[in-house]
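Exercise: predict the structure of this protein bound to zinc ion.
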Amino acid sequence: MDRMIDLHAHPSLKMHYLPYLRSTFHAKMYSGPIWNPLSFRYQYGNLKRSPVKVLFCTHYVIERDFVAKGVKPHSRALLWSTAPYYYARIRFAKPWESLLKLMETCEAAVRNTNRWVFGKNPRLVMAKSLADINGLADNEIAVVHAIEGPHVFGYELEKGQTLDDYWQRTLRRLDYLEKRGVAMLTLAHFWDNLFVPQTDGTELIPKVKDNQVVAGRDDLLVYMKRANWRWGDRGRLGEELVRELFRRGILADLSHVQVHAREAIYDIAQEVGRPVIISHVGLKHFYDHEYNLSDEEIKRIHALGGVIGLILSKRLLVDPIDRYGDDGIGIPDLIENMKYIRQLTGDVSAIGIGTDFDGLTHPFKDCYHPGQLHRIIDAMKAHFSPEEIDAILYGNSWRAMENGWGSRRSETPVSLRSAG
Ligand SMILES: [Zn+2]
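Solution:
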């Protein structure tokens, strides 16, 4: 039977921030092929027809400065006029409080959705450990908590707060998240945080300039900020956070992290024997962007037992110049990305999928909601064995979860770190 782990999707973003959606997956919203920030792709009608067995529900607290500075003035005016309450909620809410609300929304949505599930239709289970997933019945789908961006621990130091105060509070918050069953934390996002420097997430699109196709920023609505500081500049906060995640068994997701910081984190992962996840990316081989992975990195992630979640967006899988006059069909490109990793590493063990459905990305024209994920499986059959397909869709991510989520099951970790 087909089964899949989606390493990165944002249903809670829609349910929390869109004023007309309630805490339930049951909703009949737009989920068509056109990019639309108001769509809801993971609605139950699509989910129940999908091969998804484990859904990483990634909670993204929309960054205050992204809204204040990243959203262009005309879009800001639009936001104010349509939904002042929700706009204010983004601008002035404390990120930790917003995160708690996102998590509550997600858990309530699982309960509320099941009230209206009848017959043989799949039910949702909020899974807070590997055991919860191991215990799933055939007609159950696991939803797990994941978080995008360490800004949830606080955008900056508060008045009178020292860096050490901030870190002590972060440790208490990590305790809480660990107990609440959070599986993964993405270490950076669109705007500056106090821990890990981020790439510039603004997407590039083909534009015609002087009769030539060039790659230009798609900044009609927003632009994102590249950190102008380096890993380690801000004391050891980034390294301490990564080591805490590995120690506690919360998966570290390196999407949005700058290359030099990714490399530092691979070293730590190797030292402590934990896998890394890059939950929603493309490859530099096809599109040389700072967000995407180089061949050397792919080999490194493969050696660490990590997983590369390929994103369902041509804007990261294909070079913008090659996308000029493009039809938006993406499944063949996704498969080329998979084949390239297999050829480079010798097997499929580092390949996974992070759809980014309900995030801000532009979906494929041939697979724009979870109910269509079977199309990817059908297309894979010409290039991969049934065992390889199951590994790519499920087995590899499951292996990384087993080795990265929760305390270690076997021997005590080998840590070279000196005490204190
Ligand atoms: Zn992202």
